[in-house]
Design a protein that fits this description.
Rossmann fold, binds uridine-diphosphate-N-acetylglucosamine, alpha/beta, 17 helices, globular, 15% strand, six-stranded parallel β-sheet, 363 residues
Length: 363
């Protein structure tokens, strides 16, 4: 069976790593890893391959950054000949980035079976590019692997046949559990002089937050208060770097001595930093899940989440971008007014094994 595993952007790498591992050394399986090149910097891409032990991609399509239409079209144009030449039986895509839908479309139009890992998540906010990618990818996939029961229910509501849907757990958590001990050896706390210090970690890259002046300013208003209490470590995404400049906000962030802007971190350093933090503020999807498993309080700076289990039983709270609401939620965390988070069912490090077992049985 010839399988193409697709990755494109940073959050894809930790999702595909356990899948590649689970396929390793299986007789009769010929895997090919294709990187679309949507993310291409050392810090956004290469570093993750080294740290997660993912083999070098067999093919890198090198598409880089562009508008949505150009990026998606360019991925499709460059991926189609690869599928044809490789004569693939199956294409596996993960998550909700442009590479996911672009490669998914190419696969199904060539009659190749499509597997979507992390299917069924819905924010019900169609202004998010990722929501469109999720809905479209799920509607054309042959196998849909879900991380939580609500995702299964969403797919059933959309009319996806039950026999295509499998609740298997969370491959991103497979990677977290596998690397947690290794991350303990990271030197990041020493480097940032954070030993025995309470600190917050923040990540921010959603266009609705960082490309929008008002929204970014409301968040900064809350950071101005929080950084009076504790340092905020802010590994800045390239999109956010650009926005800080184009929105003329660098002077404002520069005036906050305890808001510490640093470059993107590798997987192990970020895991160590997150595990040691008092709280995490983020608009990322994956970090809501990772903090749930690590039992670190998470404030999600968005109006919605496609990962409701992290709020229902995890450590996550969706607080939006209102300055006062963020500060209020922060104060509750510091005062210890947070419930005892639980780990969602099947987030046990074995999701990739379940996925591969099902694929081998069904195919
Ligand atoms: C993409 C995903 C998003 C995911 C995020 C994780 C889509 C629609 N969005 O958003 O779901 O949460 O990745 O990071 O697929 N850039 C670099 N170096 C890189 C990559 C990007 O400098 O290696 C810069 C480019 O200037 C680019 C900008 O970041 O214009 C945005 O990159 P892009 O791939 O368009 O989307 P992300 O915002 O990273």
């Amino acid at each position: 069976m010839k399988i193409i595993n697709v990755v494109g952007a940073r959050p894809n790498f930790m999702k595909i790593a356990p899948i590649i591992e689970a396929f390793k050394d299986l007789a009769g399986i010929e895997p090919l890893l294709v990187h679309t090149g949507q993310h291409y910097n050392e810090g956004m891409s290469d570093l993750f391959f080294h740290q997660l032990g993912v083999p070098e991609p067999g093919i890198n399509l090198g598409v880089g950054s562009s508008t949505h239409a150009v990026q998606t079209a360019e991925i499709m144009k460059r991926f189609e000949p690869v599928v044809l030449e490789h004569r693939s039986d199956v294409v596996i895509v993960v998550g909700d980035v442009n590479s996911t839908i672009a490669c998914g479309l190419v696969a199904v139009k060539l009659g190749v079976r499509l597997v979507h890992i992390e299917a069924g998540l819905r924010s019900f906010d169609r202004s998010m590019p990722e929501e469109i990618n999720r809905i479209l990818t799920d509607s054309i996939s042959d196998f849909l692997f879900c991380t939580e029961q609500i995702a299964v229910d969403n797919l059933l509501c959309e009319g996806i046949p039950e026999e295509k849907i499998f609740l298997v757990g969370n491959v991103m958590i497979d990677t977290l559990l596998k690397n947690k001990a290794k991350a303990e050896n990271s030197d990041v706390l020493n480097t940032l002089e954070l030993n025995d210090v309470d600190f917050a970690v923040m990540t921010l890259h959603r266009p609705s937050n960082v490309d929008n002046y008002d929204s970014f300013c409301r968040i900064l208003g809350a950071l101005e208060v929080i950084q009076n209490d504790m340092p905020i470590i802010f590994p800045v995404h390239p999109r956010t770097v650009k926005s800080l400049c184009s929105l003329s906000l660098t002077e404002r962030t520069g005036n906050l001595p305890n808001l510490r802007l640093i470059g993107p971190l590798g997987y192990l350093d970020f895991l160590k930093l997150m595990s040691s933090a008092k709280l995490v503020l983020t608009d990322s999807g994956g970090i809501q899940e990772e903090t749930t498993v690590l039992k670190i309080p998470c404030l999600t700076l968005r109006e919605n989440t496609e990962r409701p289990i992290t709020v229902e039983i995890g450590s996550n709270r969706v607080v939006g971008t209102d300055t006062d609401k963020i500060i209020e939620a922060y104060r509750q965390v510091v005062a210890g007014q947070v419930g005892e988070p639980q780990t969602p069912v099947l987030w046990d490090g074995l999701a990739a094994e379940r996925i591969v077992k099902i694929l081998l049985e069904k195919l």
